[in-house]
Amino acid sequence: MITYWKYDKRYNQIEEWVPGCWIRVSNPTAEELETLESRWQVPLDEVRDAYDADERPRLDQADNWVTAIVRIPNSYVDDDNDTVFTTRPLAILMSGDVFVTVSFFDSPVLSDFIAWSNRRGQPERRDYDMMLSILLSSSVCYLKYLKQMNIMMKTAEERLEKSMDNDELQKMMGLGKFLIYFITSLRGNDMVFTRLKKLLRNASYDEDLLDDVEIEMQQAYDTANIYSKILDRQQSSYASIIGNNMNVIMRTLTVITIILMVPTGIAGFYGMNVPNGMESWAWGFVFAILLSLILSILIYVYLKRKKLI
């Protein structure tokens, strides 16, 4: 789908392309890609790279085109009704009066960018400033998703304090994987941003916007790293708790086995089919029971004093 957006105190969708407008392409068909190439000479080799979900962020400059591929955050609900966080590539291309963004998936980043710009009444962004604005919106979206992850971590932690549930442990492991995706993508976006700053040396741009992008990207990267370290320590702590609980259970079972060995031994000894002097004694059975009980109590007291139970 190809849509055209023109800024006039706010972003409005227009019917036809005009020089300087924003060409927003989402989930393009083969015919729409051919339109991009034939009408605006957009390099499709660069565009198709954004179709690869694992494409790394980069910034290229060739044939009067500046092409940036950045990774932007995304989330969806899977079949198990769990929220899944991931990142996908977004291609940004510009040449002269042509500015194009291409994504082969649905993401709230660009929609949030439009809504935020309209709400704040931001000045019109062109060329490099537009690219910086999209990077800024992407970083803000990363921070929003990181806050959601933090809430999910706290919820899982509260439930794990009550009982060690495998489902909650798996959710914690999933959050750790999502954080790794975010950290890797943010690191790649930072490399794009570093190269972009070199291009801006000979271009006009909004310096305040550049500083805002740098601050937000660094904050998102640092936040993701902090959450990842906290999650790693929590998982290590839970692993230690589980191991300690297992040791306690095994020790308890061992003590019970030792105590039960006493009545088992006495029953086996007096139950042998050999003379033992208690065959005709009326209190023989009671004596065996009392002896087993007394010895079991003594062994229990001994283990208790040795702090084995």
- Oligomer, anyone? single chain
Number of helices: 7
State the shape: rod-shaped
Series of secondary-structure elements, N-terminal to C-terminal: EEEHHEEEEHHHHH
* Beta-strand share of residues: 15-25%
Secondary-structure topology with pairs:
Blueprint: E1 2-7, E2 11-14, E3 22-26, H1 30-40, H2 44-49, E4 58-62, E5 65-77, E6 83-95, E7 98-103, H3 108-120, H4 128-162, H5 166-199, H6 207-270, H7 284-305
Parallel strand pairs: 3-7
Antiparallel strand pairs: 1-2, 1-3, 4-5, 5-6, 6-7
Helix pairs in contact: 3-4, 4-5, 4-6, 5-6, 6-7
Explain the overall architecture.
Helix 6 (207-270) runs antiparallel to helix 7. The chain has seven helices and seven strands; from the N terminus they run βββααββββααααα. It has a seven-stranded mixed beta sheet. The mean pLDDT is 84. It is an alpha+beta fold and 309 residues long.
Question: Characteristics of this structure?
Answer:
309 residues; alpha+beta; 7-stranded mixed sheet; 7 helices; 7 strands
Task: Write a brief caption for the model.
The chain has 309 residues and is an alpha+beta fold. Helix content is 60%, strand content 17%.
